[in-house]
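Task: fold both queries, return tokens.
Query 1:
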Amino acid sequence: MAERDGVSRLSRDVLLGPGYGWRAMGAWGSQAFQNDSAVNWLNQLRTYGIDMLRRTLTNVGLANELHELDVDAGASAVAAAELVAAAFGFERDRVPPQGRAWLDANQRAFVASDLTLAKRAVQRVLAPNSELSALWHDGGADNPWHADVSALVAFFEHRSRTQINEVLTSTLRSSAPPPRVVGEREKQIIVTFLEARGLRFTAEERRRLATSENLEEILRWLGRAVTATSVAAVFDE
């Protein structure tokens, strides 16, 4: 396969973790983990953890729709999205035992913004110029894979609204003083997003992020980090 924008072989080490074995899919089924690419990705997840999951979703979600999205990257993104969905209450029995064990050990690492990342990645897999989607649509648009992935999107659309509203409402209405460390996980995610895309912080930008104790501001920066073309664009008011 030719190299594609956002999912070249060089970027795959960033997308999935170094040493990931790329090969044509042998096992093939309509659900997220019923293909070799997703199973291989899940095996790597035990080593590279939640940062790998977020890199997978971020890179696929940002992949240019004018260029073809690699089938392996698409399958891996759908698998990552299934784990995010399960972490937020969606049908855990869709995830194999190995994935459920990883979720049990990492449940507290997930944050509301993971829902947005997962939804964007799955929508990109469903969009034009996606090898995985095209393979399934060869037999017609009415197929079990499309129905399965569409159920994920529907869950994300519902749950992300609920989760973000809960976070903002709790923050704005709470009369208790803020914790000593505010938005620490969200700050870490911002750094991961931007550095995975080759963007680098200046000392002043890193200081500004580290010293902010305004969760609403940090969440606003996090939303910008997904599509920002520079670190400065994240902090621009």
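Query 1 returned. Query 2:
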Amino acid sequence: MNQKLTDDQIKEWAKLLYITHSESIKNIHEKTGVDEAQLRDWIYDGKWDNFRKSLAATRKEQLDLLYDTLYTITARLKTNEGSEDLKDIEKIQKLTASIKNLQTEISTGEIIEVAMAYLEWMKTEAPDAVKTETLRLDRFINYWDQK
């Protein structure tokens, strides 16, 4: 069964490729057949770059970096006991404060990840409602991003 995608479905596919898979405009053009100029318009009008950047800076990635840095400083201090530097102690305090903030804050990227998973689930639960839910989630994400 070979079903033709609607224009909205192609646009959502392009958006998914651009935002979550970091595909180039050329690759998206090759996969979807959408003109590159049209893709650029969609990216600009839909502010897809903002969403792409948000995903690149997800809380998990930031937390991993902070924990790695904290571990490195702590390990260095343990091997050089007695030579604790006030700067290292201040760095540890700042890192732990940043970690605490990130553990309570929700990023736009995380909201997009959850929205994408929700839409995938919706395809099996209520395929006819996916288009409406996609539009609703896009509005919500834009609202959240402007807070």
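Both queries returned. Flag for query 2: The two ends are 44 Å apart (CA to CA).
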